[in-house]
Amino acid sequence: MKKHASEWTPISGNPAVEQAAVYLQSLGAAGTVTGSKHLLLTPGMNVMIDCGLFQGIKALREKNWEPLPVNPTDIDALILTHAHLDHCGYIPLLVKNGYRKKIYMSRPTRDLAELILRDCAKLQEEDAEKANRHGYSKHHPAKPLYTVKDAEAALPFFEVCEIDTELPLNDWLSFSLHPAGHIPGACSVRINCYGKTLIFSGDIGRKISELLPAPEPLSRADFVIMESTYGDRLHAQTDTAQELALVINDTVFNKGNILIPCFAVGRAQEVMHLIYRLKQQRQIPAPVPEYLDSPMAASAGKVLQHYPEWFAIDKKECARMFNGVTINQEYQDTEKIIRRRGSKIIMAASGMLTGGRVLEYLKHYLGDARNTILLIGFQAEGTRGRALLNQAHEVKIHGQYYPVKAQIREIEGLSAHADQTELLSWLKQFKSGKPSVFLVHGEPCAQEALRVKIKDELKLTARIVKQYEKELLFTVPLLPEAEGK
């Protein structure tokens, strides 16, 4: 057996028994909300939970080009919590650099991850080509982080897992997936490791959602590695549907357009259903055209219709929410939508305004005070979405600056992430014993606020994980004969 993760020393008084350590090491989403990659380092094998891309400010994005501090060939298993880019987007690079083991995930995550990875690779190729054509990249030539061919090479390693079913990894480790309510297919991961129970939360969803059930309850844990995205915030306790109706009606009255940057998986489908419901109830004008300008969001919607068990609504209702929505497949048709007269509701990726077709709409709509840019999800540091929330007077798109005159609105209730109260409630479920808590996937202010709350209200010890630093979880005695297994 490889001694991957620890240095072994004889236990005092019994030289026939060795002591080995189990560590946690975060390679991303430590002090930031992107690039989720968490390693569980054990004497028998190394397990990675999530393998995401860094997004946001340039300093973070540049980390995607840096080699990992571990050799991908030394990782023995990869478990994916869900199919958002900051959790799965690095997989093609991991495989390209030598990873050849299984990548475990739920059924919806498997289909969605394939869509997202293909789309991400395609966009990178297109962006590199455009940068080379127009000369706005500092790199000559500009190259994609990975290609569609690289993404396709990762797919044979995907392994679908049934929910709530324990699967062995070796003699001392097993794991199971449990729905987390964040997006369809999203799960928390329970790992049984040398008699200890570890919970990797993944992204934790809301207690009440337009489309999704609440996170599945869990009971016992010795160690909890949990996200802290909204660790310092409470979502507004307002009626989300009424907030959305007010934004749409005000903008239509002013003869403006409503641009909703959407995450293609999860948020786009939730907003579509909410608008469908508002039109059915005649709370917004039914004739206002609605466009989904994201082929991946459309494809994701079709995929998700195959998994009605992951929704809080029935299959027919899920299908009906696409009624009346014009789906734009071709990039050249985006200009036609922009030029179309009259008010429109447009949903386009990406959700943080980091790229994609939404930028073309932004170029045309930012300078008109009649229009509304409606932000509905977390906006990471350094993204255009965060800049707009921070009342930036201009934003830079493709090398040019565009003045901000449009109305910038935010509806927090449409976030897919649990807020501080919901995070604490989720953590309270571990009633047997006092688990040690490790905070990941959050910006420093959010993590510190949540750490203090966990200490004061739950009387638990919580640590903020630092990137690349190994956190000792526990030690285990191993008999010498186990080494040969």
How would you describe this structure to a colleague?
The protein is α/β, with parallel strands linked by helices. The protein has helices at 58-61, 85-88, 91-96, 107-134, 148-154, 240-253, 267-280, 295-304, 315-320, 333-339, 358-365, 384-389, 420-428, 444-458, and strands spanning 9-11, 14-28, 37-41, 46-49, 77-79, 103-105, 158-160, 167-168, 173-179, 187-193, 196-200, 223-227, 258-261, 290-293, 325-327, 345-348, 372-375, 394-397, 400-403, 407-410, 436-440, 462-464, 470-478. The strands form four sheets. Strands 1, 2, 3, 4, 5, 6, 7 and 23 form an eight-stranded mixed sheet that branches. The protein has a seven-stranded mixed sheet with strand order 8-9-10-11-12-21-22, with helices on one face. It has a six-stranded parallel sheet with strand order 15-14-16-13-17-20. Strand 3 and strand 4 form a beta hairpin. Helix 4 packs antiparallel against helix 5 and helix 4 runs antiparallel to helix 8. The protein is globular. Mean pLDDT is 89; it is low at 1-17 and 481-485.
